[in-house]
Design brief:
The complex is a heterodimer of chains A (about 80) and B (about 160).
Chain A: E1 2-6, H1 8-14, E2 18-21, E3 26-28, H2 29-39, E4 51-54, E5 57-59, E6 65-67, E7 73-77
Parallel strand pairs in A: 1-7
Antiparallel strand pairs in A: 1-2, 3-6, 4-5, 4-7
Chain B: E1 10-15, H1 21-28, E2 35-42, E3 46-47, E4 50-59, H2 61-78, E5 85-90, E6 92-95, E7 99-107, H3 110-127, E8 130-136, E9 140-142
Parallel strand pairs in B: 1-5
Antiparallel strand pairs in B: 2-7, 3-4, 4-6, 4-8, 5-7, 8-9
The chains are: A alpha+beta (about 80), B alpha+beta (about 160).
Chain lengths: ~80, ~160
């Protein structure tokens, strides 16, 4: 069970800022995205623009294998615009 | 001279209240430094012909603070003579002409603090999880920094 955090456009599309999701402990970042889109199909439109932050480290959507622990934070990161 | 004056410090803050240039520059002043360099990011009133009413910022706060602290560590590796670094970023609503970010760096001589300030703002725009929404008269837009490495529309 991981905490998924939504920001900016992804929070608007998902309609919420955070929730707990059950996912396999070992999963690629792309598979994790697909699990999240099953719950929030409206997120599909931003697939090419987002990356993840897993335990506060950026992860591209792709084949990278993640090893998740219960309570880990996974954040959906749309293109940033600080400063 | 007190020992505590010698210890370089990083001052990183994300806050909703109005930012103060006086406060941020005073944080980095040091009797060992002959230079304090400053960058202030202020909100513009227009974008592509549309009138901007105000900006709204949100952040993944814990990670944003951690990423800014990483930037400070990198600054100190590249410019070891840098003394203090302060980065204050505003969150929530920022009215036109008010500051959304203030960066101040002190160093004994001016070259290092000038270069370090530029590096800080450029790297912040590329890597810190903060988002800006521009509010126009009848719509809004989530902005995307061109420095953002994963937001290439050519993909």
């Amino acid at each position: 069970q991981v905490s998924v955090l939504y920001f900016a456009r992804s929070a608007e599309l998902a309609g919420l800022r955070c929730e707990t999701l059950s996912v396999p402990q070992e999963i690629t970042s792309l598979q994790l995205w697909e699990e999240i889109v099953k719950v929030h199909p409206r997120l599909a439109v931003i697939r090419d623009q987002v990356i993840f932050a897993v335990r506060q480290e950026y992860v591209l959507l792709g084949d990278q294998l993640l090893v998740l622990q219960p309570g880990d934070e996974v954040a959906i990161i749309p293109p940033i615009s600080g400063g | 001279m007190e020992e505590s004056e010698d210890v370089p410090k990083d001052f990183v803050k994300l806050k909703c209240e109005k930012l103060s240039v006086d406060e941020v520059s005073e944080m980095v002043v040091s009797p060992y430094c002959g230079a304090v360099s400053l960058f202030i990011g202020t909100t513009r009133n227009n974008f592509e012909g549309k009138k901007v009413i105000h900006l709204e910022y949100e952040a993944y706060t814990s990670m944003a603070e951690a990423e800014i602290k990483k930037i400070c560590r990198n600054v100190r590796q590249k410019w070891p003579s840098v003394k203090h670094i302060a980065v204050h970023h505003r969150l929530g609503v920022v009215p036109i002409t008010e500051a959304s970010v203030i960066i101040a760096v002190s160093s004994p001589h001016r070259a290092e603090s000038l270069e370090a300030v530029m590096y800080c703002i450029n790297t912040l725009k590329a890597s810190v999880p903060i988002w800006k929404k521009e509010i126009y008269e009848d719509e809004y837009s989530w902005k995307e920094n061109k420095e953002c490495f994963w937001a290439n529309s050519e993909k």
